[in-house]
Amino acid sequence: MSGRRSGSGGTRTATVAVVGVVVALVAVLLGLVGPGGSDAVPAASTSSSRATPAVGSASPTARPSPSATRAEGGRDPRSGLRVVALSELPGEAQATVALIDAGGPFPYSQDGVTFGNYEHVLPAHPRGWYREYTVRTPGERDRGPRRVVTGDHDTQIFYTADHYASFVQVSR
Question: pLDDT for 39-51, tens place per residue?
């Protein structure tokens, strides 16, 4: 970039700020972040590391989700969470749900463990009601931030792309 100030770092700071604004604007335009940004789910897009092409759908023996009926405004009346169709999730999340339906095998030893809901973003239930499963994140060396959390013996499905900071409820 031209016009770099020597020693002040001002141009670099301004450039980082502009890049941040541009990235946020692109995310909003692509539908990756909703108006509040808290419970957005990536659209079926290949331009984001969190959104990937669909890889099929859940198995034909998949159990129907009690959240299949959307409330007015696209929110589940009990949880208050935005409801999205399984087909709207990234392909890796759809593959994780298919593995859950099949009973595994799961790629990570932590898959299927009790989810504590310590963030209190999901509705309160007794310990052991929720289970969590890793959703692979392309480009991540570790488990990454994405998870599928199930409840009520895997009949309710929730998805987080931001490591439990926000969730959406998934309908089949």
Answer: 445 443 333 333 3
Residue 166: give its domain's CATH number.
3.10.450.30
Angle, CA 45 vertex, CA 43 and CA 48 arms, to 5°: 100
pLDDT band of residue 78 (cuts 50, 70, 90) is confident
Marked catalytic residue, from 119, 125, 140, 163 = 163
Sign of CA pseudo-dihedral 100, 101, 105, 107: negative
pLDDT of residue 56: 35
Q: What is the pLDDT of residue 43?
A: 40
Whether 132 is catalytic is yes
Question: First and final CA of the chain: distance in angstroms?
Answer: 49
Catalytic residue among 72, 132, 140, 153: 132
Overall domain count for the chain: 1
Name the token pair of 6: 């020597």
Report the candidate in 152, 139, 55, 60 with the shortest Cα–Cα distance to residue 94.
55
Q: Burial-class residue 129 by CB neighbours within 10 Å (0-12, 13-18, 19+).
A: middle
Whether 163 sits among the annotated catalytic residues: the reply is yes
Inside any domain, residue 44:
no
Q: Are 55 and 135 in contact (CB under 8 A)?
A: no
Please indicate, yes or no, if residue 42 is contained in any of the structural domains.
Answer: no
